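This section describes the prediction task in plain terms. A model, or a person checking by hand, is given the sequence of a single protein chain and must write out its three-dimensional structure as a string of tokens. No templates, partner chains or ligands are provided. The sample shown here is typical of the held-out split.
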Amino acid sequence: MIDFSLFRRELGLLTRLATPLLVAQTLTTATGVVDAMMSGHYSAEALAAVAVGNSLWLPLYLLISGLLIASTSMVARFHGSRNHNGIVTTVQQSIWLAIAVSLFAVWLLRHSSGLLTLVGVKPDIVPVTQGYLSAFAWGMPAAAIFNGLRSYTEGMGRTQPYMLSSLIAFIVNIPMNYVLIYGLWGFPELGAVGCGWATAISFWIQVILLVWFTSSKTNYNGIQLFARWHKPNLQHIIRIARLGLPISMAAVAEVSIFSLIALLVARLGIEVTAGHQIALSSSHLIFMLPLALSQAVTIRVGYYLGRGDQRLANTIVAVGLTAAIALSATTMSGILLFRENIIGLYTEDMTVRLIAMSLFFWMAVYQIPDHLQIISNAALRAYHDTRVPMILILITYWGIALPVGYCLGLTDWLTAKPLAAKGFWMGLTIGLSTTCCLLLMRLWKVTRRPLPA
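The expected answer:
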């Protein structure tokens, strides 16, 4: 029998956890948009450098943040079992792991001119892009520390500090961009390089704010995270990496397939590319909704698993999946009803609008399977089941979505004629639907077996 009062209570808790996460993630995305807009007003060269640079540092950032998603579920479990030592150890060792990866990222970003040339970036913007990346690179250690502290505050069920620190950093980033790009108040005019420095500084501001928030033991059940800092412990770091690395690889696989599809679609002409980009950018914004909900699910499921209450943990899974269906029905309806209005914000070109309209239809179709697979994966993370979901995602994205999309979009092997960008979106829909089915089956299996002692 369904306990509706419990259902309503947990749905309210998930909403309260997810809302600050949604705001923070939207602000992070908006920071990239602001960087592109401000550098674009400076010069086309600066905009190109920032765009190319973002495509290089984003996978590295995802690698770090993916590694530490595992820490969030670990902290949530320790929070449920009231194991304060476990929380402190996990967070501190997570930060050591993230810093080690970030130092590699700093070196790679500061020596990326050869890679830029290798992938075919135009020689005239390679020096500007390298300058932007060299400046931005100094923010990567801050990103590592920030994500470690974020896993702590999220795992403890406190998501507001992440939102507030992201908000303040976003606000500060705008005038810093303006000052360093254009050279005001005695600062040199740096163009795209100034944009890199502004973003790096905003990362460090986030860290300072989050250190301040998490220093309060009053808001964290008396835990003093910084009272004594432990040296790196290889055993703990390996344990975190085993859980986090599959999450990172899955995240990079998801992002990279969209990047590759964008490159393949670019062969089809300016109008098709523009229509695809409109649909893709809209899809990224919509994705923030189930992503925030999924992180809240990981926190709550992990908390109850830490308490050893698998029945309540599985109730949260059911609440999350139900919320995902309701949310996806809402986003699907919104896409179908308002797609003309949304596309009109991007362009007045009728050819581009018609192309985007057809892509928005397929975007609407895959909302339900996409939301369900995101929530299923989040629940599996709370159960510390990350390796099998990674394999399933790799198979369905790279073994189904991309090949099917390529065949439908660029060949006449499966249809009378190539379907262009629409074929790739049909492939994504088929791939996401398969991912959804497989992850739901995996979730059913994992949630039915007893917890280890």
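For orientation: Residues 176 and 198 are 5 Å apart (CA to CA).
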